[in-house]
Automatic annotation (TrEMBL):
Residue ranges of the TM segments: 29-51, 63-85, 105-123, 144-168, 198-221, 242-267, 279-299
InterPro entries per UniProt: GPCR_Rhodpsn, GPCR_Rhodpsn_7TM, Olfact_rcpt, Olfactory_GPCR1
Species in which this protein is naturally found: Erpetoichthys calabaricus (Rope fish)
Superkingdom, taxonomy of origin: Eukaryota
Protein name: G-protein coupled receptors family 1 profile domain-containing protein
Membrane topology: Multi-pass membrane protein
Keyword Ribosomal protein: no
Length: 331
């Protein structure tokens, strides 16, 4: 896409986040909805992190990975939600260009870490099910921590070129300055540049492949091997246990990857997408996983459920004990 490179322009200093169309009558309702969502996300993920940190029984590779996923979820939600709340509760829908680029960096950083962390989780499940006898030696707590650290570092490295090169082109923003979204999305921001954006589009596609498509294909391959391995388990109980454990991870993976892959394919192919649909999908893959992941972990993970029961002191009293207490109290 060729754009004018005329040097007689006035650089813009801020962008306008347009957001959803046709909701001007109920902005407060949307703002309150995001406040509730953001609060629940913070409480849920902080709860997961604290539960894992303060219970030695959960100091295992799988829960180390889940703890890091919760931290990346906290970053994801914190990068987006406060500005969305500000837009709808105060009407302040502008964002300065440097702040926009910073938001873009941390948004893609959190997304990259999440993709790589889900890959680490798939590796953990693969080793656990396909090589159960060698699991303690192949994936110890220390190795799991190193893999998680690698995911954080790799996420920072793969996104840095994207933002640094784009930040170098900041002087080329000369109007218009309206972003049809609620946060600074890479594809929409570069479309506002005054110069030729072909290079930036190709750059975005390449980085998108490395942080999204690559991990997704490796995850799919690992679960294919897991499926083959599960089918060879003779014990029906063993098969059900493996399926139950993996179904939790697959649910988390699907919620994150499917809408994100759709948006990536649409962006790479130049497909037209109505503004409200693009915003909805963007919010879906950015804010839904951080909101529901703690619920999934708490409901599906037996160890976390047991600790929650202990913390809340709602363990059921055996029937015989209740009967004895009632009988004693009557005399």
């Amino acid at each position: 896409m060729q754009k004018s490179t005329n040097l007689s322009y006035t650089p813009i200093t801020e962008f306008v986040l347009v957001g959803f169309t046709g909701v001007s009558q109920v902005p407060e309702l949307i703002g309150v909805t995001f406040i509730i969502t953001f609060t629940l996300t913070l409480l849920g993920n902080v709860f997961v992190v604290l539960i894992i940190k303060h219970n030695e029984s959960l100091h295992t590779p799988m829960y180390i990975i889940i703890c890091n996923l919760a931290l990346s979820d906290l970053m994801y939600s914190t990068v987006i939600s406060p500005k969305v709340i500000q837009v709808y509760l105060t009407g302040s829908n502008t964002i300065r260009v440097p702040i926009c680029l910073i938001q873009m960096y941390f948004l893609h950083f959190a997304g990259s870490v999440h993709s790589y962390m889900l890959l680490v989780m798939a590796i953990d499940r693969y080793v656990s099910i396909c090589h159960p006898l060698r699991y303690p030696s192949l994936l110890s707590n220390t190795k799991a921590q190193l893999l998680c650290l690698g995911a954080w570092m790799l996420g920072a490295v793969t996104v840095s070129p994207l933002v640094s090169i784009y930040a170098a082109s900041i002087q080329l923003y000369c109007g218009p300055n309206k972003i049809p979204h609620l946060y600074c999305e890479y594809g929409l921001v570069i479309s506002l540049s005054c110069n030729d954006t072909y290079f930036f589009i190709q750059l975005g596609s390449s980085i998108g492949s490395s942080i999204l498509v690559g991990p997704f294909l490796l995850i799919a391959l690992s679960y294919l091997k897991i499926t083959i391995s599960v089918l060879t388990i003779e014990s029906s109980g063993g098969r059900m246990k493996a399926v139950y454990t993996c179904s939790t991870q697959l649910l988390v993976i699907s919620i994150y990857f499917l809408p994100r892959l759709f948006v990536y394919i649409a962006f790479a192919s130049g497909m037209y997408m109505p503004g409200d649909i693009r915003i909805s999908l963007g919010l879906l893959y950015c804010l839904l996983p951080p909101l529901v992941n703690p619920v999934i972990y708490s409901y599906r993970m037996r160890e976390i459920k047991q600790i929650i029961v202990k913390v809340l002191k709602i363990k059921e009293i055996p029937t015989e004990i209740r009967v004895k207490k009632i009988c004693v109290s009557e005399f």
